[in-house]
């Protein structure tokens, strides 16, 4: 669990540094999102190791992430116009979800450390 947390933490730091030039930050945000989705599958496998707060956060993360993925897929359809407001909303939500996922991996890491001690 330590590796998940440290990987997530460093990827988030790299993304924050890349946002000095917003274009690079946005591109890396896509990579960060893909990696966090893979990590989410691993964390779901360790669901019982999370405390109640972590379980709630993971469920919220999964629901919001699924909603954004569906919204993004629908936005490429001609029926739903993908405008700048929706784009900014998706970007801000993605950044907040990245921070939420960092907190989830931290709680998982902390709980695994408590079990060892």
UniProtKB/TrEMBL annotation:
Superkingdom classification of source: Bacteria
Keyword Transmembrane on entry: yes
Keyword Membrane included in the entry's annotation: yes
Segments crossing the lipid bilayer: 12-44, 56-74, 86-109
Keywords, sorted A to Z: Membrane, Transmembrane, Transmembrane helix
Name of the protein described by the UniProt record: Uncharacterized protein
Source organism: Mariniflexile litorale
């Amino acid at each position: 669990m330590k590796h998940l947390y440290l990987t997530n933490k460093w990827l988030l730091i790299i993304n924050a540094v890349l946002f000095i030039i917003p274009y690079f930050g946005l591109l890396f945000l896509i990579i960060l999102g893909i990696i966090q989705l893979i990590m989410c599958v691993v964390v779901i496998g360790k669901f019982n190791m999370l405390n109640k707060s972590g379980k709630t956060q993971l469920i919220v993360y999964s629901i919001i992430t699924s909603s954004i993925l569906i919204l993004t897929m629908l936005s490429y359809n001609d029926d739903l116009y993908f405008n700048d407001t929706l784009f900014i909303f998706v970007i801000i939500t993605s950044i907040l979800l990245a921070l939420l996922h960092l907190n989830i991996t931290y709680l998982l890491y902390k709980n695994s450390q408590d079990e060892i001690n």
